[in-house]
């Protein structure tokens, strides 16, 4: 009896998280390819270009250490820093030395940095798959609060690699991050993924 109950609950959990649309064979294969690619990424370093909803843009350096850690260092004169330390996503005004902490799993960044990412995970809600000429786009949100923001990951097909992501917030405003000169692998200083409020203008 217990085995039957467990089997039912397992099936129910998978069905409850299933997308409200049917995936084609090609789309299902693309989802699996994205999962395998991201789960194989342990560290990543790249230049980035951020385009804001108002059309303004910023450049900087991106560091990723999966799971859970990321750092976006904005080029001067932009007084911004963003750090994911494994628990929080920290937005820093380096000019004011002021920081805001948000639970990482309450943000779309929690999907990108998730350990053993699976789009059938009950914590992740798959929103759509788009296959274009030489590109794959997957949109997802955190299942507990999809309205908090959607993340669209954009991959090139040859070679298959992450090239961009877009975040659509609760106010329907979208920020786009495009990566350049990305390099995977290698060791990254653990201090990159820490924020010390006592260090004014923390950048590197």
Taking pLDDT < 50 over at least 5 consecutive residues as the criterion, the unreliable ranges are: 1-18
CATH topology: outer membrane lipoprotein receptor (LolB), chain A
What would CATH call the homologous superfamily?
A: Lipoprotein localisation LolA/LolB/LppX
**Strands across the major sheet, in which order?**
6-5-4-3-2-1-11-10-9-8-7
Helix content: 10-25%
- The CATH architecture classification is Clam
Described by the principal axes of the CA atoms, the overall outline is globular
Largest sheet: 11 strands, antiparallel
Describe the fold and architecture.
- This protein is α+β, with helices and mostly antiparallel strands and 204 residues long.
- The protein has a single domain, classed as outer membrane lipoprotein receptor (LolB), chain A (Clam), CATH 2.50.20.
- Helix content is 17%, strand content 44%.
- It contains 3 helices and 11 strands.
- The chain has helices at residues 2-16, 25-40, 109-112; strands at residues 43-51, 57-65, 69-74, 80-85, 88-93, 98-103, 124-132, 135-142, 149-157, 160-169, 174-184.
- Strands 6-5-4-3-2-1-11-10-9-8-7 form an 11-stranded antiparallel beta sheet.
- Strand 3 (69-74) and strand 4 (80-85) form a beta hairpin.
- The longest helix is centred in the first third of the chain and has 16 residues, at 25-40.
- It is globular.
- Residues 1-18 have low confidence and may be disordered.
